[in-house]
Specification:
Blueprint: E1 4-9, H1 15-24, E2 37-39, E3 45-50, H2 55-61, E4 66-70, H3 71-77, E5 82-86, E6 92-99, E7 114-117, H4 120-130, E8 135-138, E9 154-159, H5 163-167, E10 170-179, E11 181-185, H6 191-212, E12 213-221, H7 225-231, E13 239-242, E14 248-256, H8 260-269, E15 273-279
Parallel strand pairs: 1-3, 1-4, 7-8, 7-9
Antiparallel strand pairs: 2-3, 4-11, 5-11, 6-9, 6-10, 12-14, 12-15, 13-14
The structure holds adenosine-5'-triphosphate and magnesium ion.
Subcellular location: Cytoplasm
Domain ATP phosphoribosyltransferase catalytic: 51-205
GO cellular component, one term: cytoplasm
Length: 285
């Protein structure tokens, strides 16, 4: 039987979370050896450990069938692959930064300036769209020192805290794009591999849904049930069970993590008590 080959980053900011996602999907992965490839004993998948920069190319060529990497690398490499799903980790932004004593008004500042970056394609596309002419210096790393050594007037790079910028006498002036980890696939997967990928995607959805939702239980006075139920969307609708205590019911449902606190506050206003909030292990819609 054929196996689905997945490329993940060998070591770096994406590695741990990529492995964790596979494990959360119930896919066992042999404890780390120094091998560059390994197979799961309980799911038809083979894992290739690669540099993130190389993943788009390998997936395009079918050396790997699918891959997990930052969207920034997908955009920069512009290979012919399918973007399947954002994965919600390794969030970062790609920013323009200039020497901190420079006065900055707007993007026209960059007209005819030299900008150092490891992401020339993303940057060129951005300024082409804006109709601004810039000179791009492509460098592989340590982009932040480019202005102080006279290589460029500005930089375009991934910024997380901004402290690296500061120590190099730079300030962030524009966010060009935000990126996160994404799952990509080859365009022409054979049927058998596509079926494995579909199984994997199904599991990823369940894992992601569960992390975005909470299971809540609460006690509500019966005379406020309608108001409380209206606050709670639930998967179909909440479960309502009578309590032993006359005039009260127990309500069970699932709510979105991002609306969570707001809903809890409103529930309390309607007299809900004994609110329990539980993590969801997996959630199949
Ligand atoms: P490789 O050796 O695989 O080429 P790398 O040095 O290019 O590794 P990392 O620094 O490990 O890559 O970052 C991998 C990805 O993690 C980035 O492409 C980006 O999508 C994401 N990322 C998230 N936060 C940050 C950050 N603060 N700095 C750099 N990358 C980040
Ligand atoms: Mg890289």
């Amino acid at each position: 039987m054929s196996k689905l080959k997945i490329a993940i980053q060998k070591s770096g900011r994406l590695s741990e979370k990529s492995l964790e996602l596979l494990k959360d999907c119930g896919i066992k992965i042999p404890a780390s050896t120094r091998k560059l490839r390994t197979e799961s004993p309980n799911f038809p998948i083979e894992i290739l450990f690669l540099r993130d920069d190389d993943i788009p190319q390998y997936v395009e060529q079918g050396v790997a069938d699918i891959g997990i990497l930052g969207e920034n690398e997908v955009w920069e490499k512009a290979k012919d692959v399918i973007n399947i799903r954002q994965l919600g980790f390794a969030g970062c932004k790609l920013c323009l930064a200039i020497p901190k004593d420079e006065k900055y008004t707007d993007l026209s500042y960059f007209q005819d300036k030299k900008i150092a970056t490891s992401y020339p394609r993303i940057l060129q596309n951005f300024f082409d769209e804006k109709g601004i002419n810039v000179k791009i210096e492509e460098i592989g790393g340590s982009v932040e020192i480019a202005p102080s050594i006279g290589l460029a007037n500005a930089i375009f790079d991934i910024v997380s805290t901004g402290s690296t910028l500061l120590t190099n006498g730079l300030k962030e002036v524009e966010t060009v794009v935000e990126s996160q980890a994404i799952l990509i696939s080859n365009k022409n997967l054979e049927q058998e591999k596509q079926a494995i990928l579909d199984r994997l995607i199904f599991r990823i959805e369940a894992v992601k849904q569960s992390s975005e939702n909470k299971y809540i239980l609460l006690n509500a006075p019966n005379n406020k049930l309608d108001e409380i139920i209206a606050l709670l969307p639930g998967m179909k609708s909440p479960t309502v069970l009578p309590l032993a205590q006359e005039g009260w019911s127990s309500i069970h449902t699932v709510i979105k993590e991002d609306t969570f606190w707001e809903i809890i506050e409103q529930l309390k206003e309607f007299g809900a008590e004994g609110i329990l909030v539980l993590e969801i292990e997996k959630m199949i819609l």
